Amino acid sequence: MASSHFLLLVLLLSVFSVSADVFVSLDCGSSEAYTDHETSIDWLGDADYVANGESHVVQSNNSISHVMDTLRVFTTRTKNCFLIDEIEKGGKVLIRASFYYGNYDGKSNPPSFALQFDGNHWASVTTMSDQLVYYETIYVVKGDYLTVCLAQTEENQFPFISALEVRGLDSTMYSHVDDNHALFLRRRVAFGSNKTIRNTDDPYDRIWAPGISGNSIETVTSDATTIDTSHGDQPPQQVLQNAISTNNSLNIISWNMNFLPIDNVIYMNMYFSEVTQLDVNQTRSFRIFQDTESISDPILPPYEDFIQMYVSNLTVSPSTIFSVVRTTNSTLPPLINALEIFTIGNALTDGTNSQDVETLISLQKEFEVLQGWIGDPCLPSPFTYDWINCSSSDPPRITALYLSKFNLSGSLPDFSSMDALETIDLSNNNLDGPIPDFFGTLPNLKELNLANNKFTGPVPASLSNKNGLTIDTSGNSDLCSSSDESCQNNDSSSPGSDQPATGSTKNNNKNSKKKKNNLPIILGTTIPAFLLVWAIVGIFAILHYKNKRATTSLVNPGQISGGSTPFVDRVQMSENFEKNPEVAAHDHENSTNV
To answer: Does this entry carry the keyword Ribosomal protein (predicted)?
Structure first.
């Protein structure tokens, strides 16, 4: 039932798309819909968004919240994907995936696995026994749907997910990075706050963690009634309501990047808002330094407004230090209200060859058992669908279908446009009708296994005469050889043919013999001798007509339309809630490197 519902979702994508103002919150493993009154978030069960997996509950003594009490675990398939279709093509979204192990299986062994989106690698997830871990990405969606997938990377370590959230963003936000690259959150901090800030304080439901204070750092609170947050990346007013500063004007505020294990290209936002109306003889002015080099002009934070300072496409190392340093003419120490740090991913993939994808969907539409696989069929490598192989080209092509023992039944749709196929294994199913001629048109086909099905009629000459092709048609009792004279006669279904064609020569001989033995007896007892010849001619004509009609139905079965619908299916790890950038104040006189 779930897989059928998934196909319906995919088909609807070709009819309409929903506004980019998406706000989807899935409580994974849960079957109920409810409102979290603390955050005013409406949570849904995830059954309508995923076709596989098992629901589990964390151990009661490990419960940390209602949302995190349930999880969905995937013990089968290489990768399993969620489909979110309330997306507008080209819309900018924030996706957050949360994981809380809670020792749900009693094994005290939190797993590791891969996290992916839209055919792109997102993160190598490392879960913890007693802590919530979440990962967040921001990017521009290339289609009118998105997929989030989990893939098993270690034996006996099964992927799971506790919550999946998708938030639509304004197209002007986070626009200082090329649309073909994703941002991966590493830190988001509201300095001076004593609580986590998110929905409803932030309409985009970004999670702003409280900042960490160090020696000589003090919290200051704005006395502004309103703060204009309608520009830039639109930080919520509650984030700008507090800041940290130093307790004397000679100190500086700095943070390091040692949470990055290796060198990375980053995008960083710094938000500054004056906390009070300054007197005419007061000045607050400062610069941003990367290590010993200034990377900004003097910044004078405005009152009841904010300045956003960003750096983009900047390569940093774990030892890089950023500092807020007052200028020589400043009478007040520096301050900072909020900070966001992202790593910038590689170019987003366009996905598997679109021609292959469209044709694969037609195959999935025809066979319900295949409809549970969503997400990109080939990407990211090596996490393909379990039953296909793909090339390493860009874009990848589907080169093999391994559908033996999939309980497929009925006729095959035309998938001749998947012209990179080299291997097709359809053995041990219940496929019927004639062997499709299009197999012979696949230019790269080397192996075709049709054994143990219910195919009928002759093997097409396009296959039997194809050089370099290995074909197995054994176990199809109603197939005949094209070299067999009776099979050739049976195959002559063109207009004007004098011989009726059937799928089995043996059955045809039996029927003919039965007619020869019985027909004269019937005639001899019912009609005069002078009508005998004409009666026989008439009866044979009728039989010939009926057989030919049956033959036409067998040799030329009605085609099954494949249809064309959109396809359904980086790299650093985000930290848990508790970990945030280190912030420290340093005596400027003793900071000889700045």
So the answer is: no
- Tens of pLDDT, residue by residue over 172-222, are 999 999 999 999 999 999 999 999 999 999 999 999 999 877 788 999 999
Name the 3-class secondary structure at 112.
strand
Contact, 184 vs 125, CB < 8 A? no
49-87 CB burial, b ≥16 within 10 A, e <16: bbbbbeebebeeebeeeebbbbbbbbeebbbbbbbbbbb
Neighbouring C-beta atoms of residue 330, cutoff 10 Å? 18
Phi-psi region of 143 (alpha: psi -120 to 50; beta: other; left: phi over 0): beta
Q: Where are the beta strands (DSSP E) in 348-445?
A: 388-390, 398-402, 409-410, 423-425, 430-434
Whether 286 contacts 299, CB under 8 Å: yes
Sign of CA dihedral 114, 117, 123, 128: negative
Name residue, tokens 């520009």.
Answer: 231
Q: Identify the bridge partners of residue 149 per DSSP, sorted by sequence position.
A: 81, 116
Q: Cα–Cα distance between 54 and 52 in angstroms, integer?
A: 7
Q: Which residue has the tokens 């019985």?
A: 518
CA separation for the pair 126, 134 (Å, rounded): 10
Q: What's 299's DSSP letter?
A: B
The two structure tokens encoding residue 582: 């280190």
Q: Are 323 and 254 in contact (CB under 8 A)?
A: yes
Peptide bond into 395 cis (omega under 30): yes
Q: Strands (DSSP E) along 204-337, which ranges?
A: 209-210, 217-221, 242-246, 251-256, 264-272, 286-290, 293-294, 307-316, 321-326, 335-336
Higher pLDDT, 443 or 534: 443
What is the tens place of the pLDDT at every residue in 303-350?
999 999 999 999 999 999 999 999 999 999 999 999 999 999 999 999
